[in-house]
Amino acid sequence: MALAEVAHLVASVDNKIIPVIPPDQKWFRQNGIEWLTTGENSDYLANRVVAISEQEMQAYHAAVKDLYKIQMEAARYVAQNNLWEDIGIPKEAVPLMEYSLREEEHLHIIGRYDFAGGMEGLPIKVLEFNADTFSLLPETVLIQPQMTSSLQPGRTTPLSYRTLDHLTDAFRNLLRRHPDFEPTILFSGMGYEEDTLNLQILMNAAKAAGFQVVQQVHLEAVVFSEDEGIFIELNPNKFQRFDFFFKMVPWDFICFEEPDLLSLLDNIIRGKHAIVMNPAFSMILQSKGLLPIMAQRAADSPYVLPASFEESDFEDKKAYAAKPVFGRMGENISLWDAEGENIIENDGDYGDFPYIYQEMAELNTDGRGYTYQPSVYWVQQPSGICLRRQDGPAIDDDAEFVCHIVE
After folding, report:
1. What's the rounded Cα separation, in Å, for the pair 16 and 219?
2. Domain ranges in the chain?
3. How large is the angle between the packed helices 259-270 and 94-103, nearest 10 degrees?
4. Low-confidence residues of the chain: pLDDT under 50
5. Is the domain covering 9-288+363-406 a CATH 3.40.50.1760 domain?
């Protein structure tokens, strides 16, 4: 989960907050998602709901629609001007990135924007785009409608909840665009429970879209053949081939930690032996190195914060965040106030990556000191909205999930 930055705690959402009772543990067990409410996650779900207005919801969706276009234009600018090193892409991955950007735009199934603001008149600002490492799907698709159903009886499902519908449409379009490929799809992650639960939502959408064989295994159980494609071993000497492969394994992890897998996937993808999602170019969109390029090329966008590759650009008394171009869960990020004082400095595993510097934005808060961060999915169109909150000036991996209704 991403760290969100805040310069001033303003624009209270106190008048939007509604108390709610979460579902009982039996419901979570029946839906296979009890992990989200047990152990260290026992206080993960806030017993509050935020009421978002229809106008605010539409504004978030408009922001996502514009931002995706801006990001794709920035990504093409990177390729045209050979700026790969600036955004952290290793030279070994460049040929695949170029191919993917040119040929695979329709394969970007899902990502998640993290925003500042958007409620109570606070402007919407994009903090980052989780183009290749999204999460929060079970919370958004399953928990949110269940938890708020008593607050909106008889109402149709709000557009902000319809992520599963949009996912099904995306997978259906995938089959339609590739009629020569068998409707077999393999989902894979690295064994983390959170990833497994998110992949299950995707699997449900793929089944509803018409895929005939849908399976999930850990990455280590997948057999990659550069000449034949992607398989799993059913039993000794018997293999199942999959023409489609969705990996919840970040491209940056593959590039830097598994170079042999990068080479295999390069040959499989460009040899058209299988279709891999999210596509390689999602690593470009995932890179926070794209933020300064967006700030330069779309300076008039109301959603894009000033950002730079040079920390010295923020020496004029502006609060800012320092972020590695790749990173997760708020690791290796630091926040600085307008007086040059360090607010937060996190350790982590991503400190060796290049850094970018982004002006801090204002987030909505409440009277108890909680900071709220809205997120919006991109599912080949603006899709579900969800929120997290935390008691302090940053949203990180310890944040609570907050459901919402649309009024």
Report:
1. 43
2. 9-288+363-406
3. 40
4. 1-9
5. yes
Residue among 407, 399, 401 at smallest CA distance from 4: 399
How much is the pLDDT for 391? Answer: 86
Rounded distance, CA 378 to CA 140, Å? 13
376 phi/psi in degrees, rounded to 5: -130, 130
**Cα separation, 346 vs 333, whole angstroms:** 5
> What is the DSSP code string of 31-47?
TT-GGGGSGGGTT-EEE
Region label for 229, one of left (φ > 0), alpha (ψ between -120 and 50) or beta (otherwise) = left
The sign of the dihedral angle between the CA atoms of 349, 353, 357, 363 is: negative
What is the residue type of 215? Answer: Q
Q: What is residue 102's predicted lDDT score, i.e. its pLDDT?
A: 96
pLDDT at site 2: 43
Query: Whole-model pTM?
Result: 0.94
* HSE-CB for 119 with a 13 A CA cutoff: 29
Note the pLDDT tens digit of each residue in 351-384.
Answer: 688 899 999 998 899 999 899 999 999 999 999 9
For residues 407 and 402, what is the distance between their CA atoms, to the nearest angstrom? 16
| CA neighbor of 114 nearest in space, from 281, 323, 367, 266 | 323
180, with CB counted inside 10 A (0-12, 13-18, 19+), is: exposed
The closest alpha carbon to 383, from 151, 195, 113, 118, belongs to 113
